[in-house]
Amino acid sequence: MILRRIARPMLATVFIASGVDALRKPTGRAEMAGDFIESSLNALPENVSAAVPHDPELLVRINGAVQVGGGLLLATGKFPRIAALGLAGSLVPTTFAGHPFWQETDPAKRNLQRTQFLKNVSLAGGLLIAAADTEGKPSLAWRGKRKASAATAAVTAALPVGAKAGSSAWDSIVERTHEGASVLGEKSEEAAELLRDRAPELAEAARERSTEWADKVRDRAPELAEAARERSTEWAEKIGDRSAEVAELIGDRAPELADSAKSLAATAQDKAEAGRRRWRKAVS
Fold first, then answer.
1. Which pLDDT tens digit goes with each residue over 158-209?
2. Considering only CA atoms, which of 126, 154, 45, 130 is closest in space to residue 81?
């Protein structure tokens, strides 16, 4: 927009001129700002004030450099919002240190200093407006809200149809959770009540069944013992009958088994002798 191309250089002119003058002639400004700089450094914590230069002329030159650089960026439209914010910050020490009208006793000088003070306040207001100017583009806050709304819509679309029918997806989820918890609590209470009512009946049934099984085991104990004794006698007789048959079979085949053992021993001896010959041959 052409209005911004004209207004920005106009607003930046005073800062460029003031910054150049502070860089070229810092002595007068440093003398005026000496008391303000000293009181400000004393008010800061020690670790912070130790890192800040204490030379008033150096601080005046730094502030002038900020004004020249910020003014040029604002005039050319390069990072205008950041430049405007930096220039607004540079006005704070310049205004309080250079125009303390409340300390003047001469009415004429007091009025002059007050006018300069109010002029700087007005410039700070214009710079803040320039710092908030997005040139018609969406601001970061608006874009953040839009992204959040899109994310909420995506989550709502992924939920079941029943969840979409409520006032919102989150309200539906909360409602379903409370409903499920209520039903679970009712069912648990109902089951506990039923168990408490039937506990004596279940205990009596368990006692009767345990007594019944004990009586059955006691009644059938002699029968089970007699059956075990009969089966053990039967197995002992079978083993006795087969032992004579096994001994006779071993006795009939004893010569054959002895010949087989001798043959295996001779074969083993031949293998051992062949192995020794191969070892002697390999060594020699």
1. 655 554 544 455 566 666 666 766 666 666 667 667 766 776 776 677 677 7
2. 130
d(CA 267, CA 260): 11
Q: Which two tokens stand for residue 107?
A: 């009415």
- Per the CB < 8 A criterion, the answer to whether 169 and 178 are in contact is no
Residue 165: per-residue pLDDT: 47
**Do residues 12 and 72 touch, judged by C-beta distance below 8 A?**
yes
DSSP state of 135: T
Distance CA 16, CA 120 (A): 14
Other beta carbons within 10 angstroms of residue 110's beta carbon come to: 14
Residue 137 carries which DSSP code?
Answer: S
Would you say the pTM of this structure is higher than 0.85? no
Tokens for 134? 């997005």
Q: Give the C-alpha distances (Å, rounded to integers) separating 108 from 12, 52, 116.
A: 29, 36, 13
Distance CA 66, CA 15 (A): 9
Cα dihedral 171, 173, 174, 177, rounded to 10, equals 160
pLDDT for 42-86, tens place per residue?
A: 777 878 777 787 888 888 899 999 999 999 999 998 899 999 999
List, in order, residues 6 or more apart from 62 with CB less than 8 Å away. 53
> Which among 88, 148, 154 is positioned nearest to 122, based on CA atoms?
88
Contact by Cβ (8 Å): 8, 75: yes
